[in-house]
Amino acid sequence: MARELSAVAAPPAGAVRGASRNATAWILLAPSCLALVLLFVVPIVYVLVLSVTDPRLSLAHYQRIFTVPVYTRVIVNTFVTSLIVTMLCLVIGYPIAYVMARRGGWMSTVLLTIVAMSFWTGFLVRTYAWLVILGSKGPVAAAYGALGLGPAPQLLFNTFSSTLGMTHILLPYMVLALYATMRKIDPSHLKAAASLGARPAATFREVFLPLSLPGVVNGSLLVFVSCLGFFVTPVLLGTPRDMMISQLINQQIEELLAFGFASAVAVVLLVATCAVLAIYNYYAGLDRLWG
Amino acid sequence: MRRRRFLKGFAATGAAAVAGPLIITERTIAQTRTIYVNTWGGSWTAAEEAAFFKPFTDQTGIRVKTVAPVSYAKLKAQVQSGSYEWDITAITQADLLRAEREGLVEPVDWTVVKKDKLFPNAVYANGLAYCALGTNLAYRKDKYPQGGPKSWADFWDVKKFPGNRSMLNNAVRTVQFALVADGVPVDKVFPLDIDRAFRKLDQIKPHIKVWWTQGNQSQQLVRDGEVDMIVMWNARASELQQQGLPVELVWPGATITTTMWGVAKGAPNRKLAWEFLQFAVQPKPQADFANKLYYGPTNPEAFKYISPEVSRQLPTYPENAKVAIKSDTVAEADQTAKIQERFTQWLAS
User: Fold this and answer.
1) What are B100-109's pLDDT values in tens digits?
2) Chain A stretch 164-193, residues whose beta carbon is closer than 8 A to a beta carbon of chain B
3) Of A196, A193, A214, A217, which is closest to residue A205 (Cα–Cα)?
4) Quick one: DSSP state of residue B232?
5) pLDDT of A140-166, one tens digit each?
6) What burial class does residue A204 get, using C-beta atoms within 10 Å of its C-beta: 0-12 exposed, 13-18 middle, 19+ buried?
7) Is the dihedral of CA A21, A22, A25, A31 positive or negative?
8) Mean pLDDT of all residues in chain A?
9) Chain A 123-142, CB below 8 Å of chain B: which residues?
10) Contact A70 B76 (CB under 8 A)
11) pLDDT at A4 over 50
12) Contact assessment for residue B62 and residue B276, using Cβ atoms and an 8 Å cutoff
C-alpha cells in the first residue's frame, strides 16, 4: 500500500523537482538578465526615445540625416571604409591564417604569437605607432631619402593612413576567425583530393577554400561591424573629410550638445549594424559566429 | 602584496555591487572630504596639482580629484540627469555665460566666498576668474631663416610662406583668425561676420594638414616637424621653447580667452567647491600656476610672485594683450552654437 502510494506520488514529486530546477535556473540567470536590461536595453531605449523627442516630438532628426549632404556622406563613407578595411583584412589575413593552420610547428606558433600580441596591444598604442612610422621623420620617409627617391609623399593625415591604421587594428580578428575555421578542416579531405589526382591549386580551390568560407564570413562580419563604430584611429590618422559615424555622434554631443540628433545618428548606426547581423543570421546563424 | 591589493579591490567591488551602482557608492563614502574637478588634463592638470590641489589638501584635508577633458556636454548631461561626475569645472568665459543662461551653474555661495578677499571683476556669470589663455600663431624658426609669418595674413599666404600648416579644431577661434587674415582690425572682430570668415577659410582649407584637438597633439606635431606653422595655446608653445625647440610665438591677432571656474548646478559638494575656489583665486596659488604654465593670472596681486621674464610671456602682459583680438564674451556666447554647427559641416565637406 505504502509502496503503491509512493509510486502514485512519485510523478508529482518529479514534476516539483523539475519546476524547482527551472526556478533555480531562473534565479541563476536573473543577475545577468538584470545587468543586460539595465546596462543595455534601457540605454538603447533611452537613445531611441531621445532621437524623436529631443528637443520636441518629431522625426526631423532623421529627415536631416538623409537630406543634409554632409551627414549622408559620413554614413556612406563609414560603410565604404568598413567594406574596404574588411577586404584588406581578408586579403592580408587569409594567407597568414592559412600558413598558421596548415604548416603547424614553430612557424605556426611564431605567427600565432605575433597575431595575439598585436591583438592584446592597446589600439591607441598601435595608432600612435603609425604616427611615428609614417611621420615626416619616420622610417618610411628615411627609407625614401636613403634610396634617393627624393622627399617622401605625405603619408599621414589622409585616407590612406586612416585606412591602414584601421586595417592593422582589425586584422587579428580576421586572422583568428579564419584560423579557428581552418584548424577544423580535416586534412584527410585534402589528401583524398590529391589522391584523386587534384593538383595543389585545384585542391585548394575545390576543397580547402569552400571549407574555409564560414571563417571568411565570420571574420568579415566581425571586422565590418567593429569598423562601423571606429572612432579614435580615424580621428588621429585621418582628416575631417574621412569622418566616420561615431566621430559625427561625438561631435554632435560634445560640441553642439545636439543629444537628439546624435541619438538619431546612433540609431541609424544601430539599425544598419542589426541589418548586417540579420542578413548573416538568415544565411549562417548567429550562434555559429564564434566557431 | 599584489595579491592582497587584488583581494582588497575585489572586496571593494563586491561591496559596491551589493550597495548599488559603483559611482554612487564611491561618492557617498568620500562625499564629506573630496571634491571632483573637471579639467583639461596633461600639463594643465599637472600645474593645477602643484599650484592648487596639493596646497589646498594640505591646508584643509579636502581631497581633490580630477576628470579630463573639460566637457560642456557633460556639464549639461549631469545637471539634467542629476548624477554628478564632478562638482567644479574649468570653462571658457563665453561657455560659462551660455551655461549660466541655461541654468547649469550654481550661483556664488556668498556664505563661503568672502567678497573682500576677491579682486575687481573676479566674478562673472556666477563663476570666478581663473586665468587668461592665448591662442596664437606659432612657427618653427628653423624653417624660416629669413623671418617667419608675423600675422594671420602671412599664415594665409602660402606662396610667401610655404610649409605645412595645422590649426586648432575650434570653430570660434578659427573664425576670428580668418577675419583678421581678411583685414579686419583686431578691435573690430566682434560681432563676427560669419559669412566673410568662411569665405576666407575656404582659401586656407586645402593647406591645413591637421586639425588638432588635444594640446599634447599640437606639441607633438611641432616637435616631430610634421608642421611648420600652427595655431597653438601660448603656454604649450612656451613649453616647447623651454624644451629647447626653435619655436616663435606671434601675439598680433592672437585670441585671449578668460578661463573661469564654475560649479555645476546642484553638485553634491558645492559648499566645499566654493571653499576650494575661494582658495584658488588667491594671489599665491594663481602665481604658482602661472609660473608653471604660462597662462596669465586674473588676480592682479599675483604678479607680486611672478618674475618680469615670465610676465612678458603671459597673455596678460600689456604689450601682448594690446595687439590681440578684443574679445566680446556676450557676442561670442550668442554666436557660438551657430558657428560650431556651420564649422562642423564645413570641416567634413
Assistant:
1) 999 999 999 9
2) none
3) A193
4) E
5) 888 888 888 877 788 888 899 999 999
6) middle
7) negative
8) 88
9) 131, 135-137
10) no
11) no
12) yes
Single-letter amino acid, residue B209: K
B172-179 LR contacts (CB < 8 Å, sep 24+) = B172/B94, B172/B332, B172/B335, B172/B336, B172/B339, B172/B340, B173/B135, B173/B231, B173/B255, B174/B201, B174/B231, B174/B343, B175/B201, B175/B339, B175/B343, B176/B255, B176/B325, B177/B137, B177/B152, B177/B231, B177/B253, B177/B255, B178/B152, B178/B204
Q: Is A156 on the interface with B (CB under 8 A)?
A: yes
**Is the CB of residue B249 less than 8 Å from the CB of residue B138?**
yes
Using an 8 Å CB-CB cutoff, list residues of chain B that contact chain A. Answer: 71-73, 76-77, 169, 171, 209-211, 213, 217, 220, 224-226, 337, 340-341, 344-345, 347-349
Residue B299 and residue B119 in contact, taking contact as beta carbons nearer than 8 Å: yes
pTM, entire model: 0.80
Chain B nearest-CA residue for A251: B344
A174: which residues sit within 8 A by CB, 6+ positions away? A86, A89, A90, A92, A93, A97, A219, A220, A222, A223
What pLDDT is attached to residue A217? 92
A73 chain-B contacts, CB cut-off 8 A: 348-349
Of A68, A69, A135, the CB nearest to B224: A135
How many CB atoms neighbour CB B2 within 10 A?
Answer: 6
Question: Which of A159-163, B10-14, B229-233, B298-302 has the weakest average pLDDT?
Answer: B10-14
**Residue (of A86, A174, A166, A78) closest to A126 by Cα position:** A166
State pLDDT tens for residues A11-50: 555 555 667 778 888 999 999 999 999 999 999 999 999 9
**Which residue type occupies B108?**
V
Report pLDDT digits (tens) over B95-151: 999 999 999 999 999 999 998 888 988 999 999 999 999 999 999 999 999 999 999
Burial of B82 (0-12, 13-18, 19+ CB in 10 A): exposed
Quick one: which of B198, B244, B222, B237 has its CA closest to B339? B198
Q: What is the bridge-based pairing of β-strands B127-140 and B247-263?
A: antiparallel
Find residue B256's DSSP bridge partners: B134
Which grid cell is A105? 610547428
Query: Cα angle at A138 between A118 and B147, to 5 degrees?
Result: 145
- Binning pLDDT at 50, 70 and 90, where does residue A52 land? very high
Cα Dmax for chain B? 69
Q: What is the structure's pLDDT at B30? A: 45
Say what the pLDDT of residue A16 is: 58
**Per-residue CA distances from A264 to A54, A289, B73 (Å):** 10, 28, 17
Helix, strand, or coil (residue A37) = helix
Residue written as cell 575650434?
A: B170
CB A119 within 8 A of CB A171: no
Helices assigned H by DSSP within B62-193:
72-81, 93-101, 152-156, 171-181
What is the Cα–Cα distance from B155 to B166, expressed in whole angstroms?
10
- Cell 562625499 identifies what position? B31
